[in-house]
Amino acid sequence: xxxxxxxxxxxxxxxxxxxxxxxxxxxxxxxxxxxxxxxxxxxxxxxxxxxxxxxxxxxxxxxxxxxxxxxxxxxxxxxxxxxxxxxxxxxxxxxxxxxxxxxxxxxxxxxxxxxxxxxxxxxxxxxxxxxxxxxxxxxxxxxxxxxxxxxxxxxxxxxxxxxxxxxxxxxxxxxxxxxxxxxxxxxxxxxxxxxxxxxxxxxxxxxxxxxxxxxxxxxxxxxxxxxxxxxxxxxxxxxxxxxxxxxxxxx
Length: 251
Prior knowledge:
12 strands, globular, alpha/beta, Rossmann fold, single chain, four-stranded antiparallel beta sheet, 251 residues
């Protein structure tokens, strides 16, 4: 489990996060919400060690993050950033990069690595893309490949920054269903999302950031009924009950 204790983080001359206390719990999907600039992406980058913290602690299974090597962190935390480069390689080779933390010298992929990659591509419905150049794929197809790379990394915590970007509605629901299945397997899945109805429908727990602080944390029901999403995000939400549970919408 990952624990944030009084976490402060930001950039030179520009503090962003101020005193964040939060847990990333195995077995649940945690949605990070908030307006632009509130610190959502900064939070994920700090947890992953890509951005040095300015104060407080990030504990990974009880161990301070700074005591772990980059390789150790990569074995425990997979991170899917909001934007990334598109290298001139096939989709299958891209997913193989998820196995890099497990390679020893000389760095050669084993049969086990290739089998894990194959299963990861199948889980995201992208097995037919393995031999295609990444640069020739659509934005949605590339997103599936990057998701497969995160799965191939085989970590207990997965951080996703806007994972439904570029995806059509059916693919968005597929991604969220996959996130729930990963949580059911005992992983902690943390997702930065702007789509409030999607987050309310699929997350087990939600954290609403405002001004670099936690404005409120709780279940989707608690945040919806508390009207804090309207207060912070400036939108009105409604919902209807269906056979499959609540469905939320902007109104």
